[in-house]
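<instruction>
Derive C-alpha cells from the sequence
<data>
Labelled lines for chain and fold
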Amino acid sequence: MYQVKVFDEEHEDDLSESINEFIAQKDGIEIVDIKFSTAFGVIENEQIYCFSALVIYIDSAE
C-alpha cells in the first residue's frame, strides 16, 4: 500500500537528517518518490526559511 510522510524543517541539513532517520527506522519500505519544496518569508527584517519534503513509499510490512 502506498503511504506518505511529510517532513518540515527550518534548515536543509535538519530535513536531510529527519528523512534519513525515518528511512533507517522503517524496515521493508521502498521509496517511490520524494517531493521537495522551499519557502521563505520576512518578519521584522528576519528571514524565515522552510524546507519540506513529501516522501511517498510502499511499506511491505503492512
In short: The chain has a mean pLDDT of 93. DSSP finds one helix and three strands in the chain. The radius of gyration is 14 Å.
